Amino acid sequence: MLLLTMGVDIGSASSKCVILGEASEVIAHSVVPSGIGTSGPRRAVDAALSSAGIGADRISVTVATGYGRNTFDNADSSVSELTCHARGAVWIHPGVRTVIDVGGQDVKALAISEKGDLSNFVMNDKCAAGTGRFLDVMARVLELSVSDLAEYDAIADGIVPVSSTCVVFAESEVISQLALNAPLPDLVAGIHQSAASRAASLMKRIGVAEPVLMTGGVAKNAGVVRALERSLGLRIITSPYSQIAGALGAALIAFEKT
């Protein structure tokens, strides 16, 4: 019978699940936009199992990670999200040296050694500046969906500066710009640049070595990726698996325990 392992990443804003096969290939994965303290983790697991067409009894080992890792009763063990994100990033892009993870409530910059191990990190976990939450609030002010932001950024002719990194002050700044009839695409570009500047600042604290991989849900926003490339003057790699890097790393660690 095929040996399967599972990684479950329970974050503040979403829950992710990855199922791996014997060759460390992704059999199934899921993302549910509900995190710790909700039904999100259970629904993420159910969705991944359904996608794989299997029952929970087929999973040999489960490892949980993320903020809510210690609240998930169905895991065999739990592992720090820093360790899991590093492992997942190396699987996604072998040889990666720097990882910038932009999640719902925090931003993490990880330095990866030549051997593929986590060698240093810095986190912005005291403020929502530059996170997915920051973009959620800005989109609400602009009466847009978060998924629309990248499209507006792509047609911007310029960048309206949003100097405040604090979510509350940035919200007031954006409202003031709207009152001045600032072009919406240019304002979106400014919001993305503000978020990217925060991430770039964290990365510079650990030293940026290429290749650089962006993980987390915000990696799906091409506007933020472009803004980060402008801030750093280098290419940022993304992947269809960027959002599930933590769960992927947890599943890989689970595989080692079989």
Number of helices, counting only DSSP H or I runs of 4 residues or more: 8
Mean pLDDT, to the nearest integer, reads 93
- Give the name of the CATH architecture of the largest domain: 2-Layer Sandwich
Strand content: 15-25%
Number of strands: 9
Principal-axes geometry comes out as globular
Over all CA atoms, what is the radius of gyration? 18 Å
Largest sheet: 5 strands, mixed
The largest sheet has its strands arranged as 3-2-1-4-5
Helix content: 25-40%
CATH topology type of the largest domain: Nucleotidyltransferase, domain 5
CATH superfamily grouping of the largest domain: ATPase, nucleotide binding domain
Number of domains: 2
Query: Structural class from helices and strands?
Result: alpha/beta
What is the rounded distance between the termini? Answer: 14 Å
Low-confidence stretches: none
- Element-by-element helix/strand order: EEEHEEHEEEHHHHEHH
Name of the CATH class of the largest domain: Alpha Beta
